[in-house]
Protein 1
Amino acid sequence: MNNTKMVNLALKHTMLRTTGEWASAVIEREGARIRTPLKGEVTREDASIAGPHLHPQGEGEATEQRAEKGQGSKGNSLFTKEQQKNPADLLAPSASVATATTPTSATTSSCGTGSTEHTAERSTESLSTRKAYISAQTGKPKQVAPHQTTTRSTSAQVAEKHLMELRHVLEGRKSKPITPYNVEAWERKLREAGLLEEYGDVPAGLRSGFWAGIPKIHQTFTPPNKASVRHHEEDFQKIMDTEFKSQCYIGPLSKEEAESLLGPFQSSPLHIIPKAGRPGKFRLIQNLSYPHAPQPQRSGEAVASINSQITSDDFPCTWGTFETVSLTISRLPPGSQAAVRDIKEAYRTIPLHPSQWPGMVVRINESDFAIDTQDCFGLGSGAGVFGRVADAGVQLIRDGGMGPVSKWVDDHIFFRIRKIFLSIYNAQRAKWAQEISAEGGRRQDGGRIWFRGKLQPDEQPEEFDEDCKAVLQDLSGKSPRSADDEQFSYSMEDIDKLFTQLGIQVEKEKDILFQVLVPYLGFLWDLEKKTVALQPAKGEKYLSAIREWQEREVHSLEDVQKLYGKLLHASNVIPSGRAYLTKLEAFMASFNNKPHAAHRPPKHTDADLQWWAARLKEAPSRSLTRPAEVRDLQAFSDASTETGIGIIIGNRWRAWRLLPGWKTHQRDIGWAEAVGFLLLIQAIVDLGSEAWARGDCIRVFGDNRGVVEGWWKGRSRNWPTNLIFRKIHEISKSNGLQFCTSYIRSGENPADEPSRGIYGDPQLLLPKISIPSDLTPFVADFDQPISTKPSPESKAQPATKKLKIETHLQAAKIRPVSHPPVPSTGSATPLSSSQLRPSGTKARDRLRLWRPVTARNKLDGNGNPTNLTEADLEAIAESIQQAWAPSTRETYGTGLYAFHLYCNEKGIPEEQRAPASGVLISSFAASLVGLYAGSTARNYILGVRAWHILHGVSWRINDAELEALLTAAEKTAPRTSRREKRNPFTVAYMVQLKAMLNMSDPLHAAVWACLTTVFWGAARLGEFTLTTLRSFDPALHIRPVDVRDEVDKQGRKLKVFRLPRTKSAVAGEDVSWSKQSNEADPEAAWDNHIRVNAPPDDVPLFAYRDDTARKTKHKALTKNKFLSVLKEAASQAKLSPLQGHGIRIGATLEYLLRGVPFEVMKVKGRWASDAFLTYLREHAQILAPYMQDNPDQNEEFLRLVMPPVVRR
């Protein structure tokens, strides 16, 4: 099997799974497209054969498909529409007839479709005639019909005869499908092995044809073939000859004849491509994924591709993946060998059930067709249908005592053991079988069947392609063999014997006989050294592909997919290479619905390819040896957005601060966690022989799943985080170490405290680490002094006043390690991990869990005891807490944190912090002036006030003085603290974004539906998206079950969304929209989301299908994911990205422009009055031009939005 086929299938079934969440792309390489389409309902006619590949689970009719007249290319021979037909000349003893029926100078009939006039003579350059092939044994002697000029009546008779002969052939094919396999031998062998119950559908399918999931066709659809068929006319004709002579094709026949025999049918465009590494050889591709989107017909109905109506996951089989083969080789006894064998014409040996034929018609030229009765490459279920037969075959091999054996489609690799190790190895297999059984046995991921073993030391499960129950046998005494073969359990002759019995034909010239160094799947496997490398020819081919890429400035989607597939294949040998594929992945995603357009690659792509070229020139290899154990140093890392990064190794620690401005240019908490991972790795390396030895695999812990699981894949889609991963790869390689990440809950992570500024014993401090130069602008050692600069707005003020929270941390907690702070009443001491402020408290819980010294008690106003209990007091606090939304509590918690840091700096005793004096609160407020936005300063003060109220502490503040300070904070807020202007979304803007989205992609469908719902519902984005994938709470978040349809008194339909709870309405609120007559119609978007994603009732409303996920089929739409999709779409459309809040603003403006009264819009958008007017003032310049022709409305608008000249 050549590499083209291997990589195409690999990308779908295995490599995408091992490299993470690449759900959005369907890999189309070398002209072949294989994908997992949407499941469609199908009807099976005349199929009464048992077995999973013969009987679909549900019966129904697929979407009706309308006819489309094919527009073929004009040309000579097979490609000339005017080529006429004669009936086939039949050969009695032969099963296939191929006869040239008309010489160059002859005239031909049109089989009943021509006129009564004589046909004109035509000459052709190469193929002068239409060949008539009718593939079946007729039992008649060979007859050569004389060629003569015919009239209409004669032509009609000939056509009728031709049709009768075709019908006879089809009936014969139904009763006796074409296959080289010995069906009786298969059935007998399976019965003897006790496998007939499991694989009974295999002999049944070989007798009557296999069900492949092709639905009943309702409308004829015959799109033209691709230009490559015309460009390689002679090669195409050779392929046609071969297909007809092998009896896979029945015909040729006209469209009318095909409809008479099959009813409505559907053909798929053909094109041919050169076979890799085989000059002059071509592969025929039947593009069963065409059309790539439902194609409207004249009738108004749409035609869908054959593949889009097949669920390939319904046709699973085993795959000998890189991981599976690696595991097998790593555990082979010394001296073991391997052989490789390729099954001949694998797919074409599998007959399809007659009910599938209408979807397998092949268009030869503008007027001729053929019926393909066999499985083919490119059919969505094709690999699984053949794989089912191949699975039965390898099970018979194992039952015969041979193995281990694995397969990848038609490529089989056989391993054999020296007889002296056979009993030991069988004992090991028995142990694996028990472990597999304990783990639940057979698993299915998409179209792949596999068997899960125990967890390996790196916490990844063992992956087998068998249950390991078959016992290997010593077959050396079964027949004479060479001295070399005598040492092993079986030989190639034993395989040949079984294959001959079953009728399995092989490509003998491709056989790789048993040896220790074998090529397989494009890799070179060394069984003696237990290593794997790219085959030299592959490495050179991939280098050449990179050089060709670098010679061009722009590239098509096919260019990207080809190169990506090659390098993804190579990343099995070069795992760190996955971190250098992210730009190509992003490039692929940028094409959307324009695969043939040429684009410039993203920035840094060339640098990544230079890295790849350097690695490929090194001809690298990879060890297959698995670590016997993982060294656990109790190494942990964590990051906090408020403070910094902390690491723990054993009982030793170190910490760093995140500097102002770090959270920009895509750097987020994931990036900070990855930096923590990097610093932890470097700290381990710096410990040297004290902690590790070369070759070790070391476990490290973190509480950020994105980083932990991202490292399993070796890369991150976030560019800054991916750069950190690259650094870790380099450290790992240069020190000969492996690192495996494990997830730990945040509350159990010991690195949480140092990441939040709660530091340990200075005597247990880890050695200082050299921070990479590109990280020094964002990360600093916890004890590094902070330089402060006076604000340009107030240069006369002392620099020490301009302190942010980080500066408070510096003054309050950070002292030179050699001089630990001595607690005293007047000194600045760190926040204590005491009963008052428990360590590890999240910001949203601080109001409740951080307690003042003086708090609510069980005494009345006169100091007398009451009958109240502690539980009663807790209930009061718990109830008051519900007055603030979770997001508000989080903001207030941050303000409370800042307040206590300020008190630490000033040495304020605990008893003076609550109740806080007016002068303390004013002083705290003054410290915020000029450093924070006015709203931030106000929220920090309100946080301290809320803390007082919640715990029953009096709040005695000079309101006028405090308000003056907060006003000063608003006026002196630094420019860096001001948010970017939230420009509004418009309908035109959204339509431009839509053009960049793929409505058949689950994620894009969910995003578009969410965008239109939030916009036309004038809702908050956070009401329809989640903060994180795991934050879903049915009591807080909307689900599909919360949606209903209503009709108003005028008969207008409304879609109503019941929000279970909102920031301003604990009992929930309704949001609604109605159909819109533009391209941003929410109804169409909603219907598309339901069709593509079909979210269950118990998941978030805009959950989208994630077919690559191993644990769930639907993934929640988070706000970050939503915005990232829109940002990418805006970039492709060359638009400026807008913020999420701009959706609600834009909706308000859109409705106002339509004449919706201000007060009505304020209610629909659920605006607080002040906020409503604020946004209207900001966008008055947008509204005013549209209102100039309506003085009354303009006057009302100006009255509402323009601020008064004098405030009284």
Protein 2
Amino acid sequence: MCGIAAIFAYGKAAPTIDGDELLAMREQMFARGPDGGGQWISDDRRVGLANRRLSIIDISPAGAQPMFNADRSLAITFNGEIYNYAELREKLIREGRRFQSHCDTEVVLELYATRGEAMLNELRGMYAFAIWDRDKRGLFLARDPFGIKPLYYSDDGHTLRLASQVKALRAGGKIDNAPEPAGHVGFFLWGHVPDPYTFYRSIRSLPAGSSMWIDEHGARAPTTFCDITTLLRDGEEAKPITDNRELAERLRSALSETVRYHLVADVPVGVFLSSGLDSTAITALAAQQGGILRTVTLGFEEYRGSEADETPLAEQFAKRCGATHRTVWVSRGDFEAERDHLFEAMDRPSTDGVNTFFVSLAAKRANLKVALSGLGGDELFASYPSFEEIPRTVRWLRPFRNWGAFGAGVRRLSAPVLKRFTSPKYAGLFEYGGTYAGAYLLRRGMFMPWELPDLLDPDLVRAGWQELQTLLRLEETIDGISNPRLKVSALEMNWYMRHQLLRDSDWAGMGQSVEIRVPFVDVDLLRSLAPLLASKHPPSKRDMAASASDLITPQMLQRGKTGFQVPVREWLLTDESGNRAAPRQWTDRGLRGWAKHVYRHFPNAQLRETNQRSQVRGHRSEVEPGGTRSVASQKIMGHDRACPSKRILVFRIGQLGDTIVALPAMWLARKHFPNARITLLCDRHPGKTHVLASDLLRGAGIFDDYLSYPVARPGELMRPAHMAGLLAAIRRGRFDTLVYLAPNNRKPEQIERDRRFFRMAGIRNFIGMHGFQQLEVKEPGRPMKLMPRESELLLRRLAASGLRVEPEDESRMDLGLGPEDDAAVSSWTARQPSDGDRVWVAVGPGSKMPAKRWPLRRFQEVIVDLINEFDIWPVVFGGEEDRVIGDWLLVQWRRGYNAAGALDLRASAAALKRCALFLGNDTGTMHLAAAVGVPCVAIFSSCEGCELIECIELGNECLKRIGRPEVLDACRDILARNRNGRTVSAVVKAANESLPQEAYAIAERLRRGLAADAVYLFGSHARGDATPDSDLDFLVVVPRSAQSRYERAVAARKLVGDVHFPKDIIVLTRAEWEKGLRAPCSLSSTVIREGVALDGKP
């Protein structure tokens, strides 16, 4: 299994091949072939082949690609497996051909040399390849009959490019990205994009069972060499088999043979085993072949122990077959961790394949490169409901198929009503249900044709529908077949299986570097079974399983069809904490919402829905151009300083981070109105995943009471009932003054609306409604600019209203944490495993906005590196919704605590204080860590102000550009300074035991008062020097911007006060400490009080 790419500049005017383009195409497909990569460009640079290799047959270097024949007249890049290669190789050897390897790729090359295009009729397997024929100056392409392996090409009239993935073609940067209407319409019609279309007009898929020749005259039309419909039609016309024993023997023999061929490999081959009959039969047939049988079962933690849990039955049968079995459990945390990987692997949009992606993950975790799947059994043995429902629908509605106007009229009248309470497909029964093509569209279609203009631009829908010719193509699929069962088989194999199931198996398996083989999807098997399928008594799924092996018991045969259940829809319909989510797309029936969600992840999406993003613009200043306040601004301010405020309402909206950055302004209000009763008014979001400001601030000493109101959607007003209730509550409070701390992106019309509302509530004095500063909006493509802090802007507004702001007010982030908060942390840690007295590192991997999430895998990798280098103890912080990913990370790290959802906000703050570092996304947890003085490595995107909840179009590209090395270096920089000492959180252990609380207080005062990077505590046995290896009681590290050493020392002494700590206070700059210098200013408390410094300055 491989990823292939090629460029052929066949036109005389075509530029020669760009090697970097070919390399970019190849490396886009790294997951398809992590075992090796090769590239070849002809001497005239008119043709180039490239390959990524997953070594399975002849894993030696002799199997590397691109591969040449002996005289180098032929070159090939090949993807797939030829299961009968050994027989073909022996035949070619008898014909005089010589081989340099034992690889199936070389067999294909030599077979082409002797047979030309006719060689395709001898291949048994799955494949897509390109052969460069030097003598004919042409390129030969081919794809297997079922289309198991993909092959995409783009021809601009001068140069042809091809690859195993659409994304690989686009990675070269030379492809026209104009949208293909048929691809977009086809996706919503089916939930996948039908071949030969893609989302791009310039990219086509080579049809299954076809070949194509390209030379200096350009590309010829694809030629079909094998057609599934023809094989079924031939089976219907074959001599019927009436003998039951012959029928049973042919069935058993054909099944045994296909499994035997699909086990061919030079690496271990496993079987995806569930409790279904398809995988059970394949496992039993594989067991009969001898050798070591390996099976893997995927289990979901959500289903463990329930009726949906297939693992017990699978494990029992694996034991019965003597298999080496492994059950791999997957949780929601794995889904969250793999979400980005899922969409990266999904080369073309699909509403299916998530189950295959995770079962491939299970195979990868079981150290398997190859696994057999039961895919195709339902299409062969008619176990889908469609095999009964479609013929029945056609029989009932056949009389109406010629009454097109009647059916269309019924549909137009009934569709608006039916879609409200049932499937909208019922509206099209009379219009479409009278033919197999129409009935199949009703059965398998995702959105109906008449619904498409509501999703996509009507002109695009019109062009796409015209190009697809869906009903005509469906009729062609069953042309010449009269047997109802075979008609449905032809439809299912050529449409659902080919365009969805097989394509999903390719991208999902290759995304995990696992080759998925499908024994039921085999041309020779179909040729053998087609006459049986066309007989009066065709074999059923149970007949198939019964004939496969005696290992399958009668009880197993009687089990009903369960299907492979995956809790992905439940994961997507709920947030991580289990609360029901309600985004608009999930109000759709079935997989329709998932279809929209998937579609938005792909470039060129044309969905007729506006991205929900808030426009962040600064306000016009309420100061006139000349600098004087307008009359209007004076009225807005309206604060009467002559009348002291008694009852104050502080208005601040937002979540955790918004509350924290407003702390200096909140404390300033308390400072100026020490005797007033102050109430905080904040917004309240539904569900447990959002926090209330009161959860954080109760006990801080700022507010006496709290009011909240339900939040409205962006751009919407509150519901009248909610607004009336809030108005009444404020009136009952009899507030005389409002401190307006609304965010600085508030628009003037919003400010005026708020002022009118609060005046209606009886408030007459307003503080903070003046002095909004307009900020520059980031221009696309321009560097980010340093803007004033939100806390600074809030204080400026309060100052503009007459409140005096002192320097110490600007950085007051005091949460008023006390012993009860520390006790809550101690109680929690007492129930956890010991941290071995290791340094804690806080990790915040979550965010309510997926657009702000750095890939979870990178958090995992960075922390692993820090564990290996610093022996740290990671602690995951976040809300209840982050608990799942926290559990997953701890499993990967094999150490740490998961505090997400386990501690309340104030206890979380107390726990964060114990950490030497915070590493996380742009979240409230980051702000909380900063508020308690923890150095932060915070990961922000460069999309300043985009405010996207989910970055669909670019897939968090800006965040992904932030690499693991730079984040790791930032963490190392902070932890390196802490290597020789203990953090502030360890002060009680490190300080003189007679003064533990005083030591804690001193450390906090020094850190805050000096704006120190950190305060380090060492053992109480200090030596006389002051190097980084010293055992000092205190070490204060201050920024380089600090003033003279004497002034720093005096400032430290003032902050310490009259507490007599027995050892010196060492004051160093950051640079001095990192260089390991001896203390430039080491002053005892006595020396400091006398005002004498070592540098001689008074």
Protein 3
Amino acid sequence: MISIKQNYKSSTRIDGAVDSKQFINNIVLHGTALSTLDTLGKEVKNTSQRCFTLTGTYGTGKSTFALYMSLLLSENKKDRALAKQKLAEVSPSSTFSEDLNVRKGWKVVKYVCGLGSPAEGLANSVLSALGEAPAVVGCSDHQYVELIKTALASAAKRTDGVLILLDEMGKALDYQSREQKDLHFFQELADAIEKSKTPVVLVGFLHQSFAEYARSMTSHIQREWGKVQGRYRDIAYSPSIDESLILIGETVTAAPEVSKKITNKYSDLVKVVATHLGKERNILHSLERALPIDPVVSLLLGPISKRSFSQNERSLFGFLASNEKLSFNQFVNNFYNNAKSVSKLHLYSANLFWQYLTVNLDHIISASRDGKIWLEAKDALYRASLDGSELHEAITKTVALITMFGYQHQLFASRDFLLSYFEQLGYSKTKVSNAIEELEKWKVLIYRDTHQALTIFQGSDIDVNELVATTVEAIKDGVDWVSEVQSTKHILASAHYHRKGTMRWADIKLINESSVGAIKGLPEIPQDNEPFLYFYIPSSPAALNALSDLVGSHKRIVYGETCTSESLKSLAIEQLALKSILKTNKALVHDKIAKEEVNGRLQANERALESELEGIFSKSKWVYCGRSYNAENLSSLISTFADDIYCKAPTIVNELVNRNKPSGSANAAIKKLVFAMAENYAEELLGLPEDTFPAEKGLYFSCLRNFGLHSEADSEWIFPAEVRNELVNTLFSDTHENVVLKAQSPVWLSDIDDFWAAPPYGMTKGIRSIWLMAFVLSHLKDYAFYDKNEATGEVIFITQPDEEFALKLIQKPQNVAVQAIQIDQEKTAYLNKLAEALDSVTGKEFNYSNEVTPLRIAEGLVTFYSKLSNYTVMTKNMTKKGRKFLEVTKKASDPHEYLFKAIPKLLNTELDSVDATQMTDLLSNLKNAHTEMLANFESSIKKALGEERISVETCTAVINFTADHKLKSFAQRLSEQTENSTKWVSNVISLLSSKSEKNWDDLAITKAQAELPELVEKFKISAHRAEFKDLSAETIKKDFKVQVNAITKSLDGLDSNKKKALLVALLEEFK
């Protein structure tokens, strides 16, 4: 039905493979192409000019023209004939081939410039095309020009001439600008070509003039560039509207019957547009050939394709063949793909084209030089839609498109045109006229008498382009532009992450000369959550020199050998200018459109800045520890560095914990697992539930069990000293040998934590906590363990890791420590004697002699001490050696010091002279001290009371008789007496001393002994009185008054205590 040629959808590469016949058949030789050929031919024939530049915006067909010209001069007769025939068909009077004296054909050198040095690339292209050996790498620009001169001279007899085509020449100029170089190479090249005896023509293709590429450079360099530009004759290559219409007609092809129907339906519409907008142009036929594109849209496509926002791969052909939403290609697929849809003969209207621009290009246009008028047009359309109809909006869109893109080409929306145009679209002239008047009344449209046409109402008086340019000029020389692009980029070492499971990254930053000194003190070992490397791009040659002098072999600094580009600097300065405008320009506060334009420009500038940085980062050469590296993929290079730096890092594939900052739930699971390791290390699954699977159990399998860190040996579950994973073995053995053994003193776990975090291990915080406890538990038999009291700073020896130790390991590893214990033969014999003594006093409860290690014996003695009663520890009624043992054991913090120095010293003997009997006696005395004290106190009680009186019946009688609570308690405790227990004695002492057994000391026992006689006396009296039964004291005094008085009188002269004792003795007599 309708087809769109895809030939020119993407740009042509002059050095690519091409089907010459198809290319020549498809090419459209419009007036600009013919005129350019004619100009080139006449210049070469009639003047000495041999170097040219063709300047035109993207998508104007410069590369296509270059390729055609190469075929027109080609040494291939067939290609040359086809091209010449095509030219003759279009322009019979053309003398281009004659002007260049084509007989055998010209040798064509095709070179597409890149972002590297143009001298080397062009020289090699010339040498290759002329059959010469390639140039040596690293020559000077002058040497490359000499090589080109020699090659051109040698080609004189073999060819009519040499045509050198420099496509994308702007990239070569960009390189010269970025490197702050002059254009001496291009000047020398022009001189060589003009003086060459071989006919040579050089044509470079540019998007903008020489001066634009030097805009950000100093005025001196700009003047120098201007001189060089004079050696190159510049020819503008910009197809006119008429030529663009021809191209559209060639690209959009309708089936004959469809074409006829469309032309018949819209012929009057085309005439209106051609009459009012075409004026003297003969474009009626071209507009008809472009149908079903609205003739207004067809006219504007050419100018639009040359706008700055259209230069990113958006040629005229690109638009026509685009698959974007609401594009012409999508329109054709929807409305011209079958007979039913074709019958309606839809038109790709100005309204549809406006929607296409809004949906696909709004953000780009807003940030371009057309941003101001585009935003004003959008604002006008919004206001038209508030009170208007679809017609009001359609008129506004049409006027906006013509205002934005037609003014420079003398296209104006007159009132008559609008009336006629919309009448052809089906609206009555009255409605259109009324709508226009209303739009003028609402100040959506405004009539400009100068052009006798309607335009959109421009609600902004601020020229943003001028404002930005002025601000840039004002700040460009004194501003720190590097700080504006200091948005640090983080790049993950992806390949290393996939291999090792550990996330590491590098930061990439720009740096200027003044900031280089600040990185001098960068630590060579990264902290948790820090990049392991910093990549620095110098902003200038001075910064590069400062970096190379300062950095040397710093383990965390990589720097680029290439400095930043001038384009980056320009973008950064423009960004500063835009931010300054937004912050300081008060007029923007009241100008919504201008403010929106500035914001749009700022967003686009940020994207361009990011893109420019990406390009610099990806193309830079890097220096690390004195060696240079090339990297097309920066992440791969960073992974290589990570593999080398962390060469001993174990592979841990667990995203939950293998990170420096685990989540809250992960931390909770880590804590539970570490606690289980400390408390249940000898149990299968560490005591975790068998029938459920909490998070900590998952960590157990993935971080411990799978590495063999917790395994079964001889029917016991242990944390083995060696495991099957080689890297984990290396980690643990390195730690034991290089950290713990080397220290010969307690090593804080924070030191081991730091050792593991640093290269070559680089373990993350989450896994370090788990494996640190595993490491500690694998050395239970040969390490001593310490806990520091934060309040007092006192370091206390503990027998083995417990829950508190585990908590500190996770949260404050600087407060827990380990120390390796090493012994020789003499010490072994000594330890055996201590083990024998311990087994003797503990009844071999722990069988210390079966496994004699310093740590186990020290633990045994400390455990023995911990089981002694408070009375035994506190009493002064102890042998001198016993007292000393208690003191040194209480303060013991270093097992080595305690066992091999303190114990022999208190025994008053040398290490090899210690006797097991000595130690057995000492420990036995301590063990029995409490029991002996209880036996003595029991004797005191029985002696005071008389053993036969302590019966349950007597005690019960006293309990029931007395109202004294203390006496009741005393009687109760006496009643609990059994033959094989001293518990009742302990209870009596606690009652008398008012202290529980765990708090007894000498004072408590002394107090109990002092209290005992009085309470015994009360007990005896109460026991006798309990036997009186119904005889009360009042009755006795009344009925036996004479006897009572006689007894009382006989006791006169005795003190109270003697009276009581005498009476109690009498009671015993009458028992």
